[in-house]
Amino acid sequence: MLVLEPQHVHMHQHAGDKAEALQCLINILVEDQLVTAEYLSGLEAREKQSATYLGQGIAIPHGTPQSREFILNTGVRLAHFPDGVVWDGENVIYLAVVIAAKSDEHLQVLQILTRALSKDVHELVKSATTAEQIIEILQAQPQSLVLHENLIQTDTQVDDIEDFFWNASKLLKQQKLVEPGFISQLNPKNTIQIQDDLWSISGSGYVKQPAVSIVKANQPLAFQGSTIKTLICIAENEQLDTQQFNRLMDVLFQPQVQQQLDDEQSSNQIAKLVGAETIPDWPSRNILLANAHGLHARPATQLVNLTKTFSGDLQVSVDGGSFVSAKSLTKLLSLGCQRGQRLTFIAEPDTDAILALDQIVEAVRDGLGEEVEPIEENLFLNSVLDQDNSAETEQYEITHCGIAASSGLAFGPAHVIKPKKFNYDRYAGSLKEEKEKLEIAIRTVKNTIHQYISKSASKDIKQIFLAHLEMLDDPDLIQQVHLALNHNLSAAAAWHEHIEKAAKAQEGLKDKLLAERAADLRDIGDKVLAILCNEPEVEEPEQPYILIMHDVGPSDVARLNKDRVAGILTSIGGASAHSAIVARALGIPAVVGAGDAVLNIDSHAVVLINGDTGEFEVNPSPEQIEHAIREREVQRLRREEAEKSAHEPAITTDQHQIEIAANVGKIVDTAKAVQNGAEAIGLLRTELVFMSHNSAPDELAQEKDYRHVLDALEGRPLVVRTLDVGGDKPLPYLPIAAEENPFLGLRGIRLTLRKPTLLRQQLIALLKSADNRPLRIMFPMVGRVEEWRAAKGILDEVLEQYPCENLEVGIMIEVPSAALLTPILAKEVDFFSIGTNDLTQYTMAIDRGHPILSAEADGLHPSILLLIDQTVRAAHANNKWVGICGELAADPKAVPILMGLGVDELSMSISSIPLVKAQVRHLNYAECQKLAHKALLCDSATAVRELAE
Ligand code: PEP
Ligand code: MG
């Protein structure tokens, strides 16, 4: 980060002309060991291309990209010339800000300077006498408060104050005005009532630029003994322009504002009311900037030269931010636009500016005087989809955001499944009527189920429905309910109470329990009850839909019909929760943790979700849908390309190979994994295999399952994890007493060591199935060396009876204590497999499925990388290998870093294998090592992600 410091300001400099001034600047840079003397040629060449005069008596000399080789360290120095120096024939400068930047850091300096230049500082710059004055002129400008129509959201569904906070922060985050932690700064206790139902809240941490967002609910909400309908959320820092802020407050305290705010429905009307900048309804075009070094002074000058030839007003914004004049060099530079960001140009209607739009887009595409490498999106869309030769693509902002859980774009009608609540009277008048009602309800449900069966193509799903029919025909069930009816109970009460009793009884049957039957019983029970209580059944849409639920459990997802469910959107959950993992395995795009408001989306309203970014949109425009279809096509083609070479090894450009393996939870998926290029199974989640059985599989059933996997692998290694039950993976027939903190309780090896018979049985089944094929057994959730030794002890006993030739034994590294003890453990195990999902959860103390926090639990946090680094070092020092089997292994930003840390194997969901292999083939191992080294020194996951960009 480049900063302007007083000790870097050289006052009282003198130069007869520009050449002398440049020499003077070079002397300063050389003396401070920022550049070698040759950098002068770079400065001169740059001035020849076009003078670096910025305005207000300031120039910003810097070298050409070719002269970067003469830069020793990135830095910026300032020289004050009190007598002035003629810079470009007509303009005289008094201050030169000379930049030596190895990459694009100079854009930051430009942003600082252009903020200063938004006021008239020419005289101040000229007459300054101290370094401190110069810095004050350049930096002490208050940061203007961003108050813009795109920071206002109306008609928002909110259930509590947290929903207000979430929406307000999201608006600020989308415009990159605050960083992700901002929401943590908003405390309900600090809300201030401005007027009746108009409240404000402010937060000062994680603020990039002072700004205000406004959220108006669709109805008032009871809050602190009063009501709240509109929240003003202020993101402030010490540079906040207090005058501007006070003006806003003056408006908000006016008595009539409360009523006006209630009346105005659109964000545009509210923006006008509070004096916020509005988005002009002008014709627009947009394009991605492809210039390698962003919109720096030279291309920006070209752009200004072009826009100035038109008399009408032309404005531009970056990535949906505020618009500035496209005719002002300083305004353009203040955007700090970088390669890959999207510029949106708008033109004043009824002027010649309209004609400018096409020319501008053309000029930006051509690089504004620089040679540019077109951006991939354009390449794809142009070459593949044959889009009318235009490199530009429309930008359609998706406005809501949850957590990206399973990659892909999906849209379709919403199918909202809410937790059901039924109201009924316990007692009824007429026995005959109640019996009739019950009969009709059961018959109706049976008819519907018959329809489902005839429509469903999947055998598995048909079977589920056939089982439902059987339950409804169960004479014992009907007899019991009739008995209750004879005691004057209403049909609804008799039915519900009996179903609930039966479901509970089944749950209590411990390991003999058919737990799924309990869930099924409740499922059909609710269907009948809905009819008895006149609750309209939510119809499953005809075409593939977006399933919206509070949460989707692993078994829910496993039962989904992939052909009907286009995507999943949930209120709670995190990217590494098991429901998300199963969604990924099924290849269904998913966004999770989107807040309870999603349950209020109208059923059948069209919803668009982006499982790569976590964004979703309700009732998207036709253009957004069209864009999604194109984007999906791009993704499809990229995948198709990668699949062609899925069976080739993953070798970097400098010949470093890494093993790419698959995570599976279903036996039948092994063959699919091999087809997709898996070189091994890196994680067989046996608890998921257990879940597919209605009761605990015995030794024989297990042996059959494991044999099936090994057969399908045809000699490739199999890494099996012993049962990892507990946490968010309960096993119905292996009940665990309720725990306050299941993730910190009886889980993984802690549980199976307390049920040694179960562990022994699983180990025997594994060893018997192996037939000397490469089998790797690992124990989950090891936190103490004693646990590993105890588990290994049991395995050694079993091995005496069932010897196995080609066996390796290892542990998962998912608990920080184990990671820290790897130097000891590495001497005893054959390998480590790092479960980054849990390792992140336990290191950062964030529940992996936490609705609000899980997005902050990023496996690329340096603390996790340090633990991985330590594990790899310990393993390699003892000639042992290390794999990664958490979700991080397939994260495109993590892949080069994990490789650079020396990890030997990456194991991931099947669908990611071809893409990760393709990515590895473009990487250079030596570069990955450098990158990993830098990542270990970062202070945040955000910094690591920026590094990996
Ligand atoms: C992990 O924790 O990273 C892991 C792979 O195990 P699971 O996700 O099944 O807990
Ligand atoms: Mg785990």
From TrEMBL:
<keyword id="KW-0479">Metal-binding</keyword>
<dbReference type="InterPro" id="IPR006318">
    <property type="entry name" value="PTS_EI-like"/>
</dbReference>
<comment type="similarity">
    <text>Belongs to the PEP-utilizing enzyme family.</text>
</comment>
<dbReference type="Pfam" id="PF02896">
    <property type="entry name" value="PEP-utilizers_C"/>
</dbReference>
<dbReference type="InterPro" id="IPR023151">
    <property type="entry name" value="PEP_util_CS"/>
</dbReference>
<dbReference type="InterPro" id="IPR015813">
    <property type="entry name" value="Pyrv/PenolPyrv_kinase-like_dom"/>
</dbReference>
<keyword id="KW-0813">Transport</keyword>
<keyword id="KW-0418">Kinase</keyword>
<dbReference type="Pfam" id="PF00381">
    <property type="entry name" value="PTS-HPr"/>
</dbReference>
<keyword id="KW-0808">Transferase</keyword>
<keyword id="KW-0762">Sugar transport</keyword>
<dbReference type="InterPro" id="IPR001020">
    <property type="entry name" value="PTS_HPr_His_P_site"/>
</dbReference>
<dbReference type="InterPro" id="IPR040442">
    <property type="entry name" value="Pyrv_kinase-like_dom_sf"/>
</dbReference>
<keyword id="KW-0963">Cytoplasm</keyword>
<dbReference type="InterPro" id="IPR000032">
    <property type="entry name" value="HPr-like"/>
</dbReference>
<dbReference type="InterPro" id="IPR002178">
    <property type="entry name" value="PTS_EIIA_type-2_dom"/>
</dbReference>
<protein>
    <recommendedName>
        <fullName>phosphoenolpyruvate--protein phosphotransferase</fullName>
        <ecNumber>2.7.3.9</ecNumber>
    </recommendedName>
</protein>
<feature type="domain" description="HPr">
    <location>
        <begin position="282"/>
        <end position="371"/>
    </location>
</feature>
<keyword id="KW-0460">Magnesium</keyword>
<dbReference type="InterPro" id="IPR018274">
    <property type="entry name" value="PEP_util_AS"/>
</dbReference>
<dbReference type="Pfam" id="PF00359">
    <property type="entry name" value="PTS_EIIA_2"/>
</dbReference>
<dbReference type="InterPro" id="IPR008279">
    <property type="entry name" value="PEP-util_enz_mobile_dom"/>
</dbReference>
<dbReference type="InterPro" id="IPR016152">
    <property type="entry name" value="PTrfase/Anion_transptr"/>
</dbReference>
<dbReference type="InterPro" id="IPR036637">
    <property type="entry name" value="Phosphohistidine_dom_sf"/>
</dbReference>
<keyword id="KW-0598">Phosphotransferase system</keyword>
<dbReference type="InterPro" id="IPR035895">
    <property type="entry name" value="HPr-like_sf"/>
</dbReference>
<dbReference type="InterPro" id="IPR000121">
    <property type="entry name" value="PEP_util_C"/>
</dbReference>
<dbReference type="Pfam" id="PF00391">
    <property type="entry name" value="PEP-utilizers"/>
</dbReference>
<feature type="domain" description="PTS EIIA type-2">
    <location>
        <begin position="2"/>
        <end position="141"/>
    </location>
</feature>
<keyword id="KW-0597">Phosphoprotein</keyword>
<dbReference type="InterPro" id="IPR008731">
    <property type="entry name" value="PTS_EIN"/>
</dbReference>
<dbReference type="Pfam" id="PF05524">
    <property type="entry name" value="PEP-utilisers_N"/>
</dbReference>
<dbReference type="InterPro" id="IPR036618">
    <property type="entry name" value="PtsI_HPr-bd_sf"/>
</dbReference>
<dbReference type="InterPro" id="IPR050499">
    <property type="entry name" value="PEP-utilizing_PTS_enzyme"/>
</dbReference>
